[in-house]
Structures are given as C-alpha cells and as structure tokens.
Amino acid sequence: MKARSAGKPELDDAQVATAWQAASLLLAYPDGEMLDRLPVLRRLVRGLPAPVAEPLGRVLGHLETAAPQALAAEYVTTFDQRKRTCPYLTYYACGDTRKRGMALLRFKQVYDAAGLVLDGELPDHLAVVLEFGATGDLAGGRRLLLEHRAGLELLRLALTEAESPWTGVLDAVSATLPPLTGDLREAVARLAAEGPPGERVGLAPYGTGPGPVLLPDPVLETRS
After folding, report:
1. I need a surface site. Which of 106, 119, 124, 177 has the fewest CB within 10 A?
2. Residue 31: helix, strand or coil by DSSP?
3. What is the DSSP code (8-state) at residue 83?
4. Contacts of 201 (CB under 8 A, 6+ apart)
5. What is the spatial distance between Cα 95 and Cα 218, in angstroms, rounded to a whole number?
6. The pTM is what?
7. Which of 127, 37, 29 is nearest to 72 (CA)?
8. Which of the residue ranges 86-90, 134-138, 144-148, 189-193 would you say has the lowest mean pLDDT?
C-alpha cells in the first residue's frame, strides 16, 4: 500500500514508517545515547525520497557538527521553554484548558486499542505519535497526525520563523502527509492568528498586521 497524493512523493508504508521513526528519534533530547544513534539514522534516511531525506539530512548535519552542550541548551530553549514550539499536539487545539484532558484521552484510546502502554511521556508528544505510527499502527498514527494537522503545521511554521535546526523534522513529516487543502490552510492561519484556546502563545503578534504567511508544501519547496 502506498501513500500518494497530488504533488507528493510516492512513499510505501515501509518508507513512511522509516521516515517517522527517524523523525521521532531526531526529536529526542540530544544526550550521548541519542547522538550515538546518528550514524544509524544517517543510513536509514539515505534510502528515502528526497523531499523527506533532505530535510532530515539537514537536522542530522546540525546534530553531527554542533557541540553537545550547545545542542542541549538549544533543545531545551526550543521545546521546553517556548510554548509556540511546544511538541505536544493537543496544546495547539486545546491550550491549557480542561478540553485538553479529553483530547489526551483520544490518543490513549488509540494506543490502548493497538496494545501500546506508555511509560512516562504524555501520549500527544509528537515523537510518541511518530514512534507509534512507525512501529505499532501506521494507520492509527496517521489518523492522529491528520486530526492535529493544523497544530503540526503551526509548529512547523514556528520552528521555521525561529530558524530552528529541528525545522527539517517537521518539513519531513509534513511531506509524508497529504497537501494542505484550502480549509485546512485557513484553520492553520486562524490558529496562528488566535493562538490556542485561553492562551496568547503562538506566533506573535496575534491579531495585528496582515496575518501569518503560511509555508509552502515541503515537496513543492524542495522541487523549486
């Protein structure tokens, strides 16, 4: 079975799983254990189509050449200290409201149905969703990503604006999913303008100026 849509590379399920596995591991905290995996990840990524391999390769290149202490500080600043680049997908749809609990339950139910038991990490962490899709249930992981596609794209946009070296991870994941439709692009723009419910945290400033400029499809961007 192949994942294919207009303008997207033709990836079979094994390639999608490989891309998601690599993306999940590249979102891990860059400690010694994670950095020791880089040669293996480099070999995995090499066999993927260019629109997926190239952005992942950029992330690998940064992790391979930057000083470990600088990487650790950069990672904490990006994913732990900035809400606009939060890796928890339900945050973008629900903010820190009570509705987030029900959204998290949705993830847990999908994992439970596949026999996955989480240990420690929240179920909506992007790395967890990608790992689940890559190693447990590809269709289930894809459903969760598509249900939170607006948040995923907002995270990609925020990382791009911050010139983060981890932007390539989101570019690659986006390249494995269908192109954004008009309605979905409007949802991303609305979320970027308003922020998560009850919060004013996404791309600043909210409600001013001409509005956010959304990113092009990563596949089209690679081809240009």
Report:
1. 119
2. coil
3. G
4. 83, 84, 95, 195
5. 27
6. 0.83
7. 29
8. 189-193
